[in-house]
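ugh ok so i messed up the first submission bc i forgot one of the chains. this is the corrected input, ALL of the components this time, i swear. 465 residues overall. if the numbers dont match what u have on ur side tell me asap before i send this to the collaborators (the ones from the other lab, u know who)
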Amino acid sequence: MIVRYEPWGAWVKLEREPALVALDRAGVRALGLEGGRTWTAPPRPSPPLEVHLAVTSRCAAGCEGCYLDARPDGVDPPRETLEAALDALARAGVFTVAFGGGEPTLREDLGELAHAARRRGITPVVTTSGLGLNASRREALRAFAQVNVSYDGASEAYEAVRGFDGASHAEAAIHALAEAGIAVGVNVVLVRGTFDRLAATLRRARELGAREAQLLRYKPAGRARGLDYLARRLSAAQVARLPAVLRAVSAEHEGALRIRIDCALVPFLSSDEELASRPEDLARWGVFGCEAGAALGAARVDGRLAPCSFAEPSAAKVEDLGRAWRDDRALAPFREYVERPPEPCASCTLSAVCRGGCKVVSAHLSPRTGGFAPDPECPRVRAHAAREEA
Amino acid sequence: MSDDRRASPSPAHVRALRLGHGANCSSVGSVIDTLFVSAAIGGAVFAAVCAAMKDEPVRVVGEEADEPPPSEEDR
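and heres the new structure output, hopefully the right one now
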């Protein structure tokens, strides 16, 4: 297992049965370990646990909502540049690197990059569209701890999210990966037109062999920043139903298909009285809200560091991760905002978990705030705004 | 470090537990289905994870990675 000391104890990454555990100091001492300087020196910002590394900006899929505006004529950073980035991640103590793009499988050296991460003690995972996933590309994915295929549902649902029907390719990829014994999950983007088909989408993904489904909020970044964002995002009624839907799909797939939600969906749990009444359970089960610039970091295809894959990058480069994460003034506000959020977040029971909602959505809908304002799509924030206006 | 100095930490010392890897490249994901399991099942998961920590070999990463292990006097 891998241990990274923190001022409060340590993060422990278990490898046989993959899990990440935050242990307090007494728990760390039970393991015969002591936190050294990290426990005695003044606390400093911790490096990210997970970094999303764009390994290409090439992609031929042309998804309408691509958050990076990837294109067929995008660029591939040289292998040496990416290995230098992996060196920086290893020095900082990052546990997981998620390769993305663009379409990562277009790189001939993708499997070698995964091995390069493993040699440095970092767990590599990857997201792919599954388009063009032939046998040799599929074998290159064997080096990854998990592969997620973007799959928003059967043909019409897929097309509603991405603007073309690539569902059959994604389904073939999920099935082929599962048949090959490669751990495979699906990423499902939730938009207004497909939300009601989520249950069917998850059933299909499970039939195909997926063992995990990550549900993603649609975010206004890249090509998704257009005017149709407002028409594509979940409706307020769908947001209100989300906790009940999560309960239903969790019960249906218990033990067979693990259900994850992304950081940006966490504020949507605030409308659920039962969940909002037990924030300590959410924290203890490791639910992460906006960890941009904190537990999560991203490196763009040009190497610039960003608080997350959707947020604007800073001038700092990933090769300088250790110093930049502590000192870069573009990253710090993401951490500082969550220390003192305004109302209605300040009095929200889920505030410490949610961490103010998605700053990218806030920045898009309230540009003057730079994103450092309550997430305007959160049901609690909507209700607060309605009361203020009345 | 010899294993005889290691014990399983108590689940009470676990501040947070995140299961699995996740493999999304654009946002951080959290397992949500565990929020809806019974307390007994949840407790068993925490106990199993704590037990596993006693057996796996340890590697320290990050700023402390290059420091020598603490001596008995430092403990």
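quick check: Residues 220 and 227 of chain A are 10 Å apart (CA to CA). that seems consistent at least. Chain A has a mean pLDDT of 94.
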